Amino acid sequence: MDHRPISRVISAFSFLLIAIISAACSLGGLDPAGSDAVLSFTIPQLARAPGAGRAVFSGGMTLYIRTIGASSGPSGVYGPYAVSDSEFSTTDIPAGSYDSLAIIVFSETPSATILSTLTNATDAEFLADDKTGTSLENFKDLCDGTAAASMTGAISLRGGTKTKVSVVLEPLCSETTNMITFDGPTPLTLTWSVPAFTNRFYRIDLSSLSSSASYLGMQITHVNTLAPVLALYGERGGSLGSFSYNSADKQFSHNLIPYQNPLYLYVNSSIAESYSIYLYESVPNITVSGPTTFAGTTANTSSSTELSSNNTTAYDLGCLYSGDTFHSSTFTINNDGTRPLAISSITMSNANSYWTTTLPSTPISIPAGSYYDFTVTLTLASLVSGTWTPSVTINSDDPDTATFVINLTGSMSS
């Protein structure tokens, strides 16, 4: 096993997060150990909706606190405390100054081995830059996805005063077990099995994927009738939003996962079963269509044809004759991709007074599976015969067709 100090584990692998401290007491004038100092923080809820919650287990949880670098007396472990998505306070921690507090939440009662490791790790193994130790390396392997943890910075607890700590939790997952590893470019499919009564995190390793991907999509399919509870978290333990669920297909889907490595997948299931994960790069995809034919001066809106970018055969808006007023054609920008399509500009070139356009103001965003319409009109400005060939240019963030050009043609005859 690689014997690395815990500070390097924290910075390099992010198995513990630094808590944001809002302390209500000062550094000086501390009361003796044993006075009624109150440590208080909120256990964030498990994410059920986009942007809500941190990486915490659903339902009842068991919490331990390990002090590090106590100003008086040895460091200690406090707990277990039963907690459930609510504010937690304790007067068990002696007043004094500490280099840090390790706050660890378990989804189940930790084993004697885990508790022994937590208790017997030296302060140096938690904090030192130049000393080696194995306890915390062992600890994250022992937790195997059944714990989420935070380490505070330096903190002081003062007797008779409540000290509030804002905890930011991140899963502790073994690097050898509880891992889901993708070993090639997207799209990829793999299967993995979970035991019955699972309530833990799985670490998804994406190190082999291209970090140029801005968004990923994920589909997870299960077998049994009873659906599990799934939630997805980023490398810093924050929620990445909810999966949508199709009960007919027994499939969870999430198309807007900002690329980061690793990801953490929370699984809560009472049934042992196998899961299939399909991972792909989530991108927009632009297509453009227009009416197929004209009937008199009106475009046939009952049918449409898909256009190719920079089409060799110009899209024909028809011919205006004496007595006609206009030909009008509405084009549809479709987003057939899996994330929103950002349109930065829509412009017309090589036009003249015989053409009018109703172009949308940009930028605009077209959701996945949706569309946007704009209209190009050929008007009879005067009885001047001729043929004109303008073009419409659509700029977007489609990775394959960033610039979509529609070549047009239209004519007038006196």
CATH-defined topology of the largest domain: Immunoglobulin-like
What would CATH call the class of the largest domain? Mainly Beta
Global Rg: 30 Å
- Unreliable spans: 1-34, 295-300
Strand tally = 34
The CATH architecture designation of the largest domain is Sandwich
User: How many helices?
Assistant: 4
* Oligomer status: single chain
Mean pLDDT, to the nearest integer, reads: 78
Range of strand content: over 45%
Structural class: mainly beta
Give the overall shape, derived from the CA principal axes.
elongated
Question: Fraction of residues in helices?
Answer: under 10%
Straight-line distance between termini = 87 Å
Q: For the report, how would you describe the main beta sheet?
A: 6 strands, mixed
Number of domains: 3
Topology:
Layout: H1 6-13, E1 17-18, E2 20-22, E3 38-42, E4 61-68, E5 77-83, E6 87-90, E7 96-98, E8 100-106, H2 112-120, H3 123-127, H4 135-143, E9 147-151, E10 155-157, E11 162-166, E12 170-172, E13 179-181, E14 188-194, E15 198-205, E16 215-221, E17 229-233, E18 244-246, E19 251-258, E20 263-269, E21 273-281, E22 286-291, E23 294-295, E24 298-299, E25 304-307, E26 315-321, E27 326-335, E28 341-349, E29 355-358, E30 364-366, E31 371-379, E32 386-388, E33 391-396, E34 403-413
Parallel strand pairs: 1-9, 3-11, 13-15, 26-34
Antiparallel strand pairs: 2-11, 3-6, 4-5, 4-8, 7-10, 8-9, 9-12, 14-21, 15-20, 16-19, 16-21, 17-20, 18-19, 22-25, 22-27, 23-24, 27-31, 28-30, 28-33, 29-31, 32-34, 33-34
Helix pairs in contact: 2-4
